[in-house]
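Quick one:
INPUT:
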């Protein structure tokens, strides 16, 4: 009888140990989740080491630049045929949000065989490239090239020989 009693006591002890291990495991899991949350999802600022007005001013600069860049590139895109969607480059602002800091548009610069269509397309291309108020170097280069190609087409229409001797 004593042996059976020992087995039941050992079994009971093992069962209690298993219950305690499960409880500890649950507590450990909760502690891990809590520490992950604290490390990843909260901002711990020790002391206020920035000026609130400076923060607002810098944040406004990010917002203004984002608006300027998007308007600039959309003005280009709306004026002529493009070969790809607008491509933006981004920066993360002090508030953790993403703001456009630059961009580009890939114009369709192919010239149609029909001279009238080619002239219309080159006019649109020159207009779209020089459409925004502040032109970049690339903008002015595209506009200049479109205008030059238009002049070359007009010269060909008028019978000018550009060196085809």
């Amino acid at each position: 009888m004593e042996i059976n009693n020992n087995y039941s006591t050992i079994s009971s002890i093992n069962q209690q140990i298993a219950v305690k291990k499960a409880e500890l495991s649950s507590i450990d899991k909760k502690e891990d989740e809590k520490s992950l949350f604290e490390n990843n999802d909260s901002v711990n600022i020790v002391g206020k080491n920035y000026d609130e007005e400076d923060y607002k001013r810098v944040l406004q600069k990010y917002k203004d630049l984002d608006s300027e860049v998007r308007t600039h590139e959309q003005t280009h895109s709306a004026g002529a045929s493009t070969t790809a969607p607008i491509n933006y480059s981004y920066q993360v602002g002090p508030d953790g949000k993403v703001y456009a800091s630059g961009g580009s548009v890939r114009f369709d610069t192919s010239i149609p065989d029909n001279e009238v269509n080619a002239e219309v397309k080159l006019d649109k291309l020159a207009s779209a490239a020089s459409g925004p108020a502040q032109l970049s170097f690339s903008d002015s280069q595209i506009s200049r090239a479109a205008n030059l190609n238009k002049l070359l087409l007009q010269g060909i229409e008028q019978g000018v020989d550009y060196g085809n001797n």
